[in-house]
Design brief:
The complex is a heterodimer. Chain A has 2 domains: about 80 residues, Ubiquitin-like (UB roll), CATH 3.10.20.30; about 70 residues, [2Fe-2S]-binding domain (DNA polymerase, domain 1, Orthogonal Bundle). Helix content of chain A is about 35%, strand content about 15%. Chain A is built from 5 helices and 5 strands. In chain B, helix 5 packs antiparallel against helix 8, helix 10 packs antiparallel against helix 11 and helix 11 crosses helix 12. Chain B is about 35% helix and about 25% strand. Chain B has 3 domains: about 50 residues, Uridine Diphospho-n-acetylenolpyruvylglucosamine Reductase, domain 2, CATH 3.30.43; about 120 residues, Uridine Diphospho-n-acetylenolpyruvylglucosamine Reductase, domain 3 (2-Layer Sandwich); about 110 residues, Enolase-like, domain 1 (2-Layer Sandwich). In chain B, the strands form 4 sheets. In chain B, strands 4-5-10-6-7 form a 5-stranded antiparallel β-sheet. In chain B, strands 11-12-13-14 form a 4-stranded antiparallel β-sheet, with helices on both faces. By secondary structure, chain B is of the alpha+beta class. At the A-B interface, strand 4 and helix 3 of A face helix 2 and helix 6 of B.
Amino acid sequence: MSKVQVTTSINGEEMEFLCEPQQTLLEVLRETLSRTGTKEGCATGDCGACSVLVDDRLVCACLMLGVEAEGHEITTIEGIATDDGLHPLQQKFLEHAALQCGICTPGLIVAAKSLLEKHPDPDETTIRYWLAGNLCRCTGYDKIIRAVQDAAKELAHPA
Amino acid sequence: MGAFGYVAPGSLDEALTVLSEHASLGKRAQVLAGGTDLLVQMRGLDREPRTIVDIKKLAETNRVDIGAQEVFIGAAVPSAVLNENQALVDLYPGLLEAADLIGSTQIQGRATLGGNLCNASPAGDSIPAMIAAGAVCVIAGSGGTRELPVEDFVTGVGTNALGADEFLVGLKLPAPGPGTADAYLRFIPRTEMDIAVAGCGVSVTLDGSGKCTAARVGIGAVAPRALLVPAAAEALIGSTLDDAALQAAGEACSAAASPITDKRGTDVYRRKVVGVLCRRAAAIARDRARQA
């Protein structure tokens, strides 16, 4: 077994790690780098719990090899809040109780962040289609949609 | 049992050398583009170690060239990037719709047309749309580059025409002339995130009087592989794409289908639905062609 050295940036921090060629980025994040905010749900790209941004593009970390992170910028849920506090999406998820068990939440927040960067004022249909790859078995989605809409308003007109 | 390996060649020649060395030693190498099918297979039914050859660092596979006569789409360009290219969407709205139907936003960020084709699922959404658009595979191999129409590339369920020392560099499409447009429709029982029960791509060319002078029809998920249906095209050519012509084309698609029965639909149902999809997709392509 020969490990591969990978140089990447995770949440703005330059990082080097060693991984097996067949290890997914999700396994590297959680097991090698102890960034356990990114969750494993299905591990087949169906549930979106492991959503991360690669060079600002939304992807499933379970469908990418760790070695493919070479030279790219990865953003995970740990990179969403700032020193000033929670991101408006995180705050609105709390206020709207848009989570119960919480396994889908990191993926949904990362996915919603990428949505709002591309569509700052999305209608409900746009939100539902964008988030169709993020499965939640608790909330029934309605509270999630409200939280994303409220966060969009907050980002457009900060209180 | 050997171990997994990973290489990301920086040139086409380097990629071909890796593939032909593995082929001559009888060692397994597998090409990686977006990985949205490959990684699932590696963790599922096919865990055998192999060398993964990542083609995302090649200039050729990342190219999207829109020429006056020809359009080239590199095999490693993710679907989301293609759909952000408005010029491409304007030329092949049907093909880009098909690409946009594959998986979630997350999948779109990685998945490629080249990968969808090489994976050779009978239900791959982009394949009938590529067939309709007249796409041709550009295949690099140690013996040189060859071309193969998309309808001849898939050889069966999950198998394709690539030799062990070859890989798909990209797809070449004829630039649509005046009065040419395409459309793709698939049927799924949900609105998103599902596998086609049946799919149909249609491309038509209309002359100044509204008569159809050229057509291509591809069907998916109703046979072991996506099929070109010449009889459906013949039913459209020469007509004004009126209801009778659409009906005849739909019937030709139903006749060409040889579907299986599974949890997503029976053979009888799929055969009927593919005809309906053909009629509707042809009507959309016709209305687009009138504007093109």
